[in-house]
Amino acid sequence: MNIKTELLIHSLSEILKTKAETEEKNKTVTATFTNPSGGAPLRCIDDPQADFSLIYNKTPHYYPQDTFSLKRMQNDVSAYATGATARIDFTDNNGTESRSDRIVKTAEAEVPDLSSLRELCVRVGLLRSYEFENLMAGGGTVNVHFWNSAKDFRYRQIGDDLKKM
After folding, report:
1. What are the tens digits of pLDDT across the range 72-88?
2. C-beta separation of 40 from 23 below 8 A
3. Which residue range(s) make up the domain with 134?
4. CA–CA distance, 143 with 128 (Å, rounded to integer)
5. Model pTM score
6. Do residues 155 and 91 both lie within one domain?
7. Is residue 1's pLDDT more than 80?
8. Which domain-ending residue is among 82, 106, 134?
9. Distance (Å, rounded) from C-alpha 48 to C-alpha 36?
10. Residues 82-138: tens digit of each pLDDT
């Protein structure tokens, strides 16, 4: 593991207030940060032949291996750790979770109605409009996850209303 990766892992450990478990395979280093509140872990992957990958749970976010981008990664992780951002995904009525998630500002995740939630899901590329309509009408949920999983909630359509649960 190179010094840049060691320093990055140390910095992320400080931000997340948890130690990383690291694994090195073929010069690729994967650091997994266990979530102390029981939520999904965060993973950082350093492949010397590619950009850094940061995976909050499902979808990788890429950061070039330069100082500016690594600082941006630390800021993004800090926002997630402090609750300024959250990740959203969805679950269909059969309990099947989406295979992707998106990061949004916490204020954006606080929506008053179905149309606002649809707009958010479409804007961040989580769902297309018709997919959102089918998901919600069929009893699915849009889920909001925080690093502190005690703050997690989900949205479900009940009749014509949106309920935050």
Report:
1. 999 999 999 999 999 99
2. no
3. 86-164
4. 16
5. 0.92
6. yes
7. no
8. 82
9. 29
10. 999 999 999 999 999 999 999 999 999 999 999 999 999 999 999 999 999 999 999
What 3-state DSSP class applies to 141? strand
Q: Is the pLDDT of residue 65 over 90?
A: no
- In terms of domains, do 78 and 11 share one? yes
Return the closest-CA partner of residue 56 out of 5, 89, 101: 101
Which residues, including other chains, have CB under 8 Å from residue 163's CB and lie 6 or more apart? 155, 156, 157
Question: Which pair of structure tokens corresponds to residue 24?
Answer: 């090195």
Of the candidates 42, 4, 45, 38, the residue with the CA atom closest to the CA atom of residue 24:
45
In the listed set 27, 60, 82, which residue is the last one of a domain according to the structure? Answer: 82
Does an H or E element contain 79, and which? helix 67-82
Mean pLDDT within 145-149: 97
CB 15 within 8 A of CB 81: yes
Note the Cα 133 to chain centre separation in Å.
Answer: 23
